[in-house]
Specification:
Elements lengths: L2 E3 L5 H17 L6 E3 L2 H10 L1 H11 L3 E9 L7 E3 L10 E8 L4 E8 L7 E5 L2 E6 L4 E8 L4 E4 L3 E6 L6 E8 L2 H9 L1
Antiparallel strand pairs: 1-10, 2-3, 3-12, 4-8, 5-10, 5-12, 6-9, 6-11, 7-8
Helix pairs in contact: 2-3
Length: about 190
Protein backbone atom coordinates (compact mmCIF):
# COMPACT_ATOMS: atom_id res chain seq x y z
CA UNK A 1 0.00 0.00 0.00
CA UNK A 2 1.32 3.42 -0.96
CA UNK A 3 -1.25 5.67 0.69
CA UNK A 4 -4.25 5.53 2.98
CA UNK A 5 -7.17 7.95 2.78
CA UNK A 6 -8.50 8.75 6.23
CA UNK A 7 -12.12 9.04 7.30
CA UNK A 8 -12.02 12.03 9.65
CA UNK A 9 -15.43 12.85 11.11
CA UNK A 10 -14.59 16.52 11.74
CA UNK A 11 -12.97 17.08 8.32
CA UNK A 12 -15.59 19.56 7.01
CA UNK A 13 -15.58 21.64 10.21
CA UNK A 14 -11.78 21.81 10.22
CA UNK A 15 -11.77 22.79 6.54
CA UNK A 16 -13.94 25.81 7.34
CA UNK A 17 -11.21 26.99 9.72
CA UNK A 18 -8.02 25.88 8.00
CA UNK A 19 -8.65 26.86 4.35
CA UNK A 20 -8.93 30.63 4.92
CA UNK A 21 -6.10 30.50 7.46
CA UNK A 22 -3.64 28.75 5.13
CA UNK A 23 -4.64 30.71 2.01
CA UNK A 24 -4.14 33.98 3.92
CA UNK A 25 -0.77 32.71 5.16
CA UNK A 26 0.27 31.75 1.61
CA UNK A 27 -0.89 35.02 0.06
CA UNK A 28 1.69 36.84 2.17
CA UNK A 29 4.57 34.77 0.74
CA UNK A 30 6.34 33.97 -2.50
CA UNK A 31 4.54 31.28 -4.50
CA UNK A 32 7.01 28.39 -4.55
CA UNK A 33 6.20 24.70 -5.00
CA UNK A 34 7.58 23.61 -1.62
CA UNK A 35 7.31 25.89 1.41
CA UNK A 36 8.55 24.97 4.84
CA UNK A 37 6.47 26.32 7.72
CA UNK A 38 8.87 27.66 10.32
CA UNK A 39 8.75 26.37 13.90
CA UNK A 40 7.46 29.78 15.01
CA UNK A 41 4.67 29.78 12.41
CA UNK A 42 3.81 26.15 13.23
CA UNK A 43 3.43 27.04 16.92
CA UNK A 44 1.16 29.98 15.96
CA UNK A 45 -0.81 27.68 13.70
CA UNK A 46 -1.30 25.20 16.57
CA UNK A 47 -2.65 28.02 18.77
CA UNK A 48 -4.88 29.53 16.07
CA UNK A 49 -6.41 26.28 14.75
CA UNK A 50 -6.18 23.82 17.66
CA UNK A 51 -9.03 21.78 16.16
CA UNK A 52 -6.72 20.43 13.43
CA UNK A 53 -4.04 19.32 15.86
CA UNK A 54 -6.58 17.87 18.30
CA UNK A 55 -8.08 15.91 15.40
CA UNK A 56 -4.64 14.48 14.52
CA UNK A 57 -4.06 13.51 18.16
CA UNK A 58 -7.48 11.87 18.35
CA UNK A 59 -7.29 10.01 15.00
CA UNK A 60 -3.58 9.17 14.75
CA UNK A 61 -2.40 9.50 18.35
CA UNK A 62 0.27 11.84 17.03
CA UNK A 63 1.76 15.30 17.20
CA UNK A 64 2.89 17.32 14.19
CA UNK A 65 6.64 17.85 14.33
CA UNK A 66 7.16 19.42 10.92
CA UNK A 67 4.86 21.00 8.33
CA UNK A 68 5.05 22.49 4.89
CA UNK A 69 2.65 23.47 2.19
CA UNK A 70 2.85 22.60 -1.48
CA UNK A 71 1.68 25.08 -4.09
CA UNK A 72 0.99 23.77 -7.61
CA UNK A 73 0.12 26.18 -10.39
CA UNK A 74 0.18 25.96 -14.19
CA UNK A 75 3.97 26.44 -14.22
CA UNK A 76 4.70 23.64 -11.74
CA UNK A 77 6.28 20.42 -12.94
CA UNK A 78 6.67 17.64 -10.40
CA UNK A 79 8.92 14.91 -11.81
CA UNK A 80 8.90 11.34 -10.53
CA UNK A 81 10.76 11.39 -7.24
CA UNK A 82 11.10 10.21 -3.68
CA UNK A 83 11.14 12.78 -0.89
CA UNK A 84 13.61 11.05 1.39
CA UNK A 85 17.10 10.20 0.24
CA UNK A 86 18.40 8.95 3.58
CA UNK A 87 18.77 5.12 3.26
CA UNK A 88 18.77 4.66 7.05
CA UNK A 89 15.16 5.83 7.25
CA UNK A 90 13.02 2.83 6.36
CA UNK A 91 9.69 4.62 6.09
CA UNK A 92 8.69 8.21 5.63
CA UNK A 93 5.04 8.95 6.22
CA UNK A 94 3.40 12.30 5.58
CA UNK A 95 -0.13 13.32 6.39
CA UNK A 96 -1.25 15.34 3.37
CA UNK A 97 -4.27 17.54 3.96
CA UNK A 98 -6.09 19.18 1.01
CA UNK A 99 -6.43 22.94 1.31
CA UNK A 100 -7.49 24.22 -2.11
CA UNK A 101 -8.41 22.52 -5.42
CA UNK A 102 -7.23 19.07 -4.36
CA UNK A 103 -9.11 17.47 -7.26
CA UNK A 104 -7.25 19.54 -9.86
CA UNK A 105 -4.35 17.07 -9.82
CA UNK A 106 -3.61 13.49 -8.91
CA UNK A 107 -0.69 11.96 -7.11
CA UNK A 108 0.68 9.15 -9.27
CA UNK A 109 2.66 6.29 -7.73
CA UNK A 110 5.36 4.59 -9.83
CA UNK A 111 7.79 1.70 -9.70
CA UNK A 112 11.11 1.44 -11.48
CA UNK A 113 11.13 -0.76 -14.58
CA UNK A 114 14.28 -2.50 -13.28
CA UNK A 115 15.86 -2.55 -9.82
CA UNK A 116 19.22 -1.44 -11.27
CA UNK A 117 17.80 1.93 -12.35
CA UNK A 118 19.38 4.74 -10.36
CA UNK A 119 17.83 8.13 -9.84
CA UNK A 120 19.60 11.45 -9.58
CA UNK A 121 19.91 12.98 -6.11
CA UNK A 122 18.82 16.61 -5.85
CA UNK A 123 19.48 18.74 -2.81
CA UNK A 124 17.03 21.49 -1.94
CA UNK A 125 16.89 23.90 1.00
CA UNK A 126 14.34 21.57 2.66
CA UNK A 127 16.26 18.32 2.11
CA UNK A 128 17.23 15.83 -0.54
CA UNK A 129 15.22 13.66 -2.89
CA UNK A 130 15.90 11.34 -5.76
CA UNK A 131 14.48 12.07 -9.22
CA UNK A 132 13.76 9.48 -11.91
CA UNK A 133 13.24 9.58 -15.66
CA UNK A 134 9.64 8.86 -16.67
CA UNK A 135 10.88 6.32 -19.25
CA UNK A 136 12.51 4.28 -16.46
CA UNK A 137 9.28 3.87 -14.47
CA UNK A 138 5.72 2.65 -14.80
CA UNK A 139 2.54 3.76 -13.05
CA UNK A 140 1.14 1.45 -10.36
CA UNK A 141 -1.48 3.57 -8.61
CA UNK A 142 -2.88 7.09 -8.31
CA UNK A 143 -5.22 9.12 -6.15
CA UNK A 144 -6.82 12.53 -5.90
CA UNK A 145 -6.20 14.36 -2.63
CA UNK A 146 -9.77 15.14 -1.58
CA UNK A 147 -9.51 14.03 2.06
CA UNK A 148 -6.60 13.79 4.53
CA UNK A 149 -4.31 11.07 3.24
CA UNK A 150 -1.29 9.29 4.68
CA UNK A 151 1.44 8.70 2.11
CA UNK A 152 4.75 6.89 2.12
CA UNK A 153 6.88 9.52 0.37
CA UNK A 154 9.80 7.12 -0.05
CA UNK A 155 7.74 5.52 -2.82
CA UNK A 156 8.26 6.95 -6.30
CA UNK A 157 5.58 9.53 -7.00
CA UNK A 158 4.75 12.58 -9.06
CA UNK A 159 1.86 14.94 -9.72
CA UNK A 160 -0.31 14.98 -12.84
CA UNK A 161 -2.50 18.02 -13.50
CA UNK A 162 -6.09 16.96 -14.31
CA UNK A 163 -7.62 20.37 -14.88
CA UNK A 164 -6.48 23.91 -14.52
CA UNK A 165 -8.59 24.85 -11.52
CA UNK A 166 -5.38 25.96 -9.84
CA UNK A 167 -3.55 26.58 -7.62
CA UNK A 168 -3.65 23.24 -5.87
CA UNK A 169 -2.53 23.68 -2.28
CA UNK A 170 -1.96 21.01 0.30
CA UNK A 171 -0.59 20.92 3.80
CA UNK A 172 2.01 18.18 4.34
CA UNK A 173 2.81 17.17 7.92
CA UNK A 174 5.32 14.81 9.54
CA UNK A 175 3.99 12.78 12.46
CA UNK A 176 5.74 12.21 15.76
CA UNK A 177 4.85 8.50 15.75
CA UNK A 178 5.65 7.74 12.13
CA UNK A 179 6.65 4.10 12.65
CA UNK A 180 3.53 3.32 14.68
CA UNK A 181 1.29 4.88 12.01
CA UNK A 182 3.14 2.96 9.30
CA UNK A 183 2.59 -0.37 11.08
CA UNK A 184 -1.09 0.39 11.65
CA UNK A 185 -2.01 1.59 8.15
CA UNK A 186 0.59 0.16 5.76
CA UNK A 187 1.29 -3.39 6.98
Amino acid sequence: MYYKKLDIDSFEQIQELIVPYITHFINQREKLFYNLISEKNLEEFKKDIPELFECIRRNLNSEIVFASYLFVDKNTEVPIHTDANNPTIKKRIRLNWPILNGSSAETVIYQKNHEKIQGVVHTHPWGTGTYYNVNDCHEVDKYVLNVPTLMNVKELHGVRILNYNLPRILLSMRLSNEEEVYRKYFN
